[in-house]
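ping. complex inputs:
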Amino acid sequence: DAKTTQPNSMESNEEEPVHLPCNHSTISGTDYIHWYRQLPSQGPEYVIHGLTSNVNNRMASLAIAEDRKSSTLILHRATLRDAAVYYCITGIGGTSYGKLTFGQGTILTVHP
Amino acid sequence: NAGVTQTPKFQVLKTGQSMTLQCAQDMNHNSMYWYRQDPGMGLRLIYYSASEGTTDKGEVPNGYNVSRLNKREFSLRLESAAPSQTSVYFCASSSLAGGPATPDTQYFGPGTRLTVL
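pong. complex structure:
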């Protein structure tokens, strides 16, 4: 599986946009980029995924660099409920057979 | 739909005791997974079951056994618990309907917090 690198922590103020970066320089051409988040004392939950094009859903946007070596998860207006650990994961599929490989993620703190 | 449910929510064991963690999903998913999460760490895969009747080892299978009882249920057994198995255990499921090479969303349960003394 491709390895990802994320900052250990980031901070934001409520109602401001948040850009969470992820580097995945060894990503292969068929690897998808997934983001999950884990709220305090809960299991992880799916946020978004993409392959090459930028993606939007009701939770967030995913901007993927043209060379696919990095991506950014964008929360357009952070709320206190968005305080969580955000995991960037690549390499799902193929021989990974659906298995997720979690790194340490980015701890997002949202200030009121 | 309840999604993925796990029992128990909390458990304290003594070294050498055994126990089984239960997981069930009501989403008709093909695949199920067991992860553990140690303090300050990401999740690590223990075992997974790509479909009913099959199980395979993940990254950290030692000290654990699993049973895919039917399509809904996937249990994790600790035969002789050790303090190193103190962790939070998460079960997850996914459809993998498009096959292993397609993107797939995993749905996680609330976790079981296990302490081994």
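The mean pLDDT of chain A is 89.
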